[in-house]
Design brief:
The chain is built from 16 helices and 22 strands. By secondary structure, the protein is an alpha+beta fold. The strands form 5 sheets. Strands 6-9-10-22-21-20-17-11 form an 8-stranded mixed β-sheet, sandwiched between helices. The chain has a 5-stranded mixed beta barrel with strand order 1-2-3-5-4. A hairpin with a 2-residue loop joins strand 2 and strand 3. Helix 4 packs across helix 6, helix 4 crosses helix 15 and helix 13 packs antiparallel against helix 14. The protein is globular. The termini are far apart. 33% of the residues are buried.
Length: 585
């Protein structure tokens, strides 16, 4: 062994012991005839002292060490004269007796510290160095601990961990598949699974009534902070259950992990909100309920007063921002530009200030009297000193735009504290969503989601208003996970395919093996998948899932460290019988 202790292990009780440490040089401070070296490994940092008067050769060698040199050091544990309360090992230091250089290092392209001087692109290019930083390492340690604890919890509740295939059949609906050519079957392709959906349903048919998997999933979609082309789900399925059973089981799991990681007890059941209520109150199916600013619909009060922007709109809806009547015109202009950004797409913003003295200032004073605007304030529950921000337009689009503004105001006012957690369940999603471009319905979740039993009679007569037996668990404005009760009746599943525009032949081609299995006694079943990367990022207080993943892709889906994706050698293309098309100019 190159070491008998780690760099985070030694304490004052170890004083006088002779130990051997190995690790990387974090800092090397030369102070006259003394050299103070910070030695780092995965477990922490220990200070090592070299004295020129006691061992000149060793002191000279220590002076030659650069950052990130890999060294082995033997010495005696001593009590530090100037203790460092910020380090667990800050009461001790090692008086070095020997030093061996195990490997030299070039000067790293950025500092290996929490507050590094390296930008995102540089750190991703040298990710193996970035992973040495304590904060990134801590995220991966948290990920490891959570994965083990989730496995323990599910095992204790009778779940079996079963792996499902990575090379699968490409199926429509949802995001684009990543496809893999088959050399042994020229002209045919596998897909990488977007989720193990079909296989976990087959496991229920097989009688494995409680399944889980820490599953790798793949989606070829545009990236953002909470998306990667490959990600991990805690994927679960249960037989002989209703919606309430699944919710109870996984609410218990989430509560257990919050207690295990953060020491937080959620004694009461998580609140529940229908999808319709979430959209009307927050403009989002994953509302952040750490703060208020619920939407208020003032359409009846605002319409018909000669202001075409409102008169021609389907809805006029706003939020009340407490204590912000003092906002300057410049600040309000910034908010207007915020909602006009292409990502949000609003045409403008209406504002009304209810001053502390009860007077009114607004951007629509030409069209509405103070008394009319005070009616708005009453409806919006505004108090003196509050600012009302109002948007108007097509209902669903406007609510989504206002949702972005609400979150922005929550952030500006410090109401989105990462150490405060507000979970809830969103239920009663629509089963279908209509697409204007293709003029047909799509499954809001996937084609195997069961309709609410009370709405089955509406499938052909009121298709757009059929509710799904589907549920999402949301934490702080993030969809932590979601699931549904599945269709287990072949006739109902065929009806679903028909409503989604599948011919019987197409349905058989895509999902025939599942439908065949259903002929042999499929039990009622349902499940849920938790976004594991997202769960870790929420508990770590991160804005992106990227730093919970050892080797992530950038926003273009590229790994800039190993330079993938990359072109294939022509010989490989020939072996796969593939020919590339010229890219259109």
């Amino acid at each position: 062994m190159y070491r008998d202790k780690t760099c985070g292990e030694l304490r004052i009780d170890d004083k006088g012991k002779t130990v051997t440490l190995a690790g990387w040089v974090q800092k090397n401070r030369k102070m006259g005839g003394m050299n103070f070296l910070d030695l780092r490994d995965r477990y922490g940092i220990t200070q090592v002292v070299f004295n020129s008067s006691e061992n000149p050769d060793l002191f000279h060698l220590a002076n030659s060490l650069g950052r990130e040199f890999v060294v082995e050091i033997t010495g005696k544990v001593a009590e530090r004269e100037n203790k460092n309360p910020n380090l667990p090992t800050g009461d001790i230091e090692i008086i070095a007796d020997s030093l061996k250089v195990l490997n030299k290092s070039e000067i790293p392209p950025f500092t290996i510290e929490d507050n590094t001087d390296g930008g995102d692109d540089l750190r991703m290019k040298f990710r193996y160095l970035d992973l040495r930083r304590p904060m990134v390492k801590k995220n991966l340690e948290l990920r490891h601990k959570m994965a083990f604890e989730i496995r323990r919890y599910l095992d204790a509740n009778g779940f079996l961990e079963i792996e499902t295939p990575i090379l699968v059949k490409s199926t429509p609906e949802g995001a684009r598949d990543f496809v893999v050519p088959s050399r042994m079957n020229p002209g045919e392709f596998y897909a990488l699974p977007q989720s193990p959906q079909l296989f976990k349903q087959l496991l229920m048919v097989s009688g494995f009534d409680r399944y889980f998997q820490v599953a790798k999933c793949f989606r070829d979609e545009d990236l953002r902070a909470d998306r990667q082309p490959e990600f991990t789900q805690i994927d679960c399925e249960m037989s002989f259950v209703r919606q309430e059973d699944v919710i109870d089981m996984f609410e218990g799991l989430v509560k257990h992990i919050f207690k295990y990681v953060k020491g937080i007890d959620f004694d009461a059941p998580f609140p529940r909100m229908t999808w319709k209520e979430a959209m009307e109150k927050y403009g989002s199916d994953k509302p952040d309920i750490r703060f208020g600013m619920e939407f208020k619909d003032i359409t009846p009060l605002a319409k018909g007063k000669g202001f075409s922007v409102i008169d021609d709109a389907e809805i006029t809806v706003g939020i009340t921002v407490p204590g912000c009547a003092s906002y300057s015109r410049k600040q309000i202009d910034e908010l207007t530009e915020f909602v006009k950004r292409p990502q949000i797409g609003a045409k403008g913003l209406i504002w009304v200030k209810l001053e502390n003295d009860g007077s009114i200032k607004s951007s629509v004073g030409k069209f509405y009297s103070d008394d009319q605007l005070k009616e708005w304030a009453h409806k919006m529950e505004a108090k003196p000193g509050d600012l009302m921000l109002i948007m108007t337009g097509e209902a669903m689009k406007t609510r989504k735009q206002l949702s972005e503004l609400r979150l922005e105001m929550g952030s500006r006012l410090g109401l989105r504290d990462k150490n405060v957690f507000a979970p809830l369940w969103v239920i009663d999603f629509p089963l279908f969503e209509w697409d204007e471009e293709t003029q047909r319905y799509y499954a809001m979740h996937h084609p195997f989601t069961s309709p609410n039993p009370d709405d089955i009679s509406k499938l052909h007569t009121d298709t757009g208003n059929v509710r799904a037996t589907a549920y999402d668990i949301v934490v702080n404005g993030n969809e932590l996970g979601g699931g549904s009760i599945r269709i287990h009746d072949p006739e109902l599943q065929n009806t679903m395919f028909e409503l989604l525009g599948f011919t019987p032949e197409k349905a058989k081609e895509q999902f025939g093996f599942l439908m065949e299995a259903f002929k042999y006694g499929a039990p009622p079943h349902g499940g849920l998948a938790l976004g594991f990367d997202r769960f870790v990022s929420i508990l770590a207080g991160l804005d992106s899932i990227r730093d919970t993943i050892a080797f992530p892709k950038n926003n273009s889906g590229r790994d800039v460290m190993n330079e993938s994706p990359s072109p294939l050698d022509p010989a490989q293309l020939d072996e796969l019988q593939l020919q590339l098309k010229e890219k259109n100019s």
